[in-house]
């Protein structure tokens, strides 16, 4: 059955949402600069490669072009005032680090600073600058190091990013991330079956099959589904 839905057709526009209003730091530790960039994201996983798109007339554009380095500092709800301010003020006129009381920390692999108040900082080295022929230029970069606040790690050293209080941006408005609604791959994950109790020592009463024999949710079929989904 085809269900009719009422939609209006508009001309093409930048309506991808939500996006991260990332604080992108550049310049040097002695003369740090920061701007807010929403046009950013991942390009590939291995080796990790990202991008930011910046208008050529921006002060930061020249700094990044010259140094070929920048840091993507993940945005949080606690930083929303600084995020907004750094998106509407220019580093030509003032130090936005000082104006917003941000802390410039030394990075491990690049000369530009980290924003200390951000919980995760991605150090990036530019490999390509793409002239898009419109409002922005794209800086394609390798992620050469990641800095993570230790308070986001659990007792096994795993990152718990939900504790960071991240925020997003959509159509002119900022939003704090809401409740968790799923894990990656949950839609194809097989439920574990309860093993029946076995009465014999020969393993023929169920529950003693090898882990790779399509049984108990741990067999090759379930494993292949998860791997294929991840590689898409």
Account of the 3D structure:
The chain has 4 helices and 11 strands. The protein has a 7-stranded antiparallel sheet. A two-stranded antiparallel sheet has the order 6-7. The chain has a two-stranded antiparallel ribbon with strand order 10-11. Strand 8 and strand 9 form a beta hairpin. Residues 203-232 have low confidence and may be disordered. The chain is globular, with a radius of gyration of 23 Å. The chain is α+β, with helices and mostly antiparallel strands and 232 residues long. It has helices at residues 59-67, 80-88, 96-99, 220-231; strands at residues 22-27, 32-37, 40-44, 49-54, 69-73, 104-105, 114-115, 120-131, 137-148, 167-170, 173-176. The chain starts with 21 loop residues before the first strand and ends with a helix.
Could you give a quick summary of the protein structure above?
This protein has helices at residues 59-67, 80-88, 96-99, 220-231; strands at residues 22-27, 32-37, 40-44, 49-54, 69-73, 104-105, 114-115, 120-131, 137-148, 167-170, 173-176. It is an alpha+beta fold and 232 residues long.
